[in-house]
Amino acid sequence: MSRNSAVSLFVAAMVWLVLATVSYAEEGMIPIKSYEGKKEYTYWILTPEDLLMCLGLGGDMLTLRKDIPAQEKKLDELKEKVVNLGGAIEKKRATENLSQKDLEKINKAVDAYAKINKAHTDLLAKYNDNVDKLNESLEKYKNQCDGRKFYQEDYNAILKGEM
Q1: What pLDDT is recorded for position 49?
Q2: pLDDT grade, residue 27 (50/70/90)?
Q3: How far apart are CA 15 and CA 130, in angstroms?
Q4: Strands (DSSP E) found in the chain
Q5: Three-state secondary-structure class, residue 107
Q6: Amino acid 117: pLDDT
Q7: 117-130, pLDDT tens digit by residue?
Q8: Above 80 in pLDDT, residue 1?
Q9: In Å, how far are 22, 103, 146 from 86, measured between CA atoms?
Q10: Mean pLDDT of 85-107
Q11: What are phi and psi of 45, to 5 degrees?
Q12: What is the dihedral of CA 72, 73, 77, 83, to 10 degrees?
C-alpha cells in the first residue's frame, strides 16, 4: 500500500472517529483479541486496511444519516414556498385591470419563484445523490463489514495513529 493511500485511509478513519457517536459494536463489527499476540486474517476477520475502510464507511453513513433528514425538511419548505408563491402569482394574474405597478410586482414574484424553484431542484439533485451514496455505503458495509470480526489491537493502533 502506498503512503498516500495509507494516509487517506487514516484520515477517513479519523473523520469517522470524530463524527461517530456510536461504538463499532453498534455498527455490526465484532472485536476480538489475538491469542498471545498472534493474528490470523481470514474472510471473517478484517485486516487493518479493511477495518479502516469499514470505519470510513461508518463515518460516511453517519454523516449522510444526519444530512438527509435536514435536506428533506428544507425540500419540504422550498416546495411549500414554490406552491404558495405560484398560487399567489396565478391569483394576481387573474385579476382584471392590472396597473403597471401590479405587473412589476408580478414580475418580481416570478423572478423569486424561479430562484426558489431552482434552489429546490438543485437541492433535490443533491438529496438524491446523497440517498444513492447512503444506499451504496450501506450495501458495501453489509457485504464487507457487517458481522465480521477485527482485532482489538488493530483498532487501538488505528486510534493511536499507528496504522
Answers
A1: 94
A2: low
A3: 18
A4: 30-32, 149-151
A5: helix
A6: 95
A7: 999 999 999 999 99
A8: no
A9: 44, 15, 48
A10: 89
A11: -120, 120
A12: 40
Alpha helices in 48-99 (DSSP H): 48-93
Sign of the C-alpha dihedral, residues 59, 62, 65, 70?
negative
Q: Tell me how far the alpha carbon of residue 130 is from its chain's centroid.
A: 5
The answer to whether 74 touches 121, Cβ cutoff 8 Å, is no
Residue type, 159: L
Please give the Cα distance from 61 to 107 (Å, whole number): 43
- Cα–Cα dist 23/80, whole Å: 39
Residue whose cell numbers read 483479541? 33
Phi, psi of 29 (to 5 degrees): -100, 155
The Cα–Cα gap between 52 and 70 comes to 28
35 grid coordinates: 491469542
Cβ partners under 8 Å of residue 69, min gap 6: none
Strand (E) or helix (H) holding 123: helix 100-144
Tens digits of per-residue pLDDT, 28-68? 788 888 888 889 999 899 999 999 999 888 888 989 999 99
Residue 140 backbone dihedrals phi, psi, to 5 degrees: -65, -45
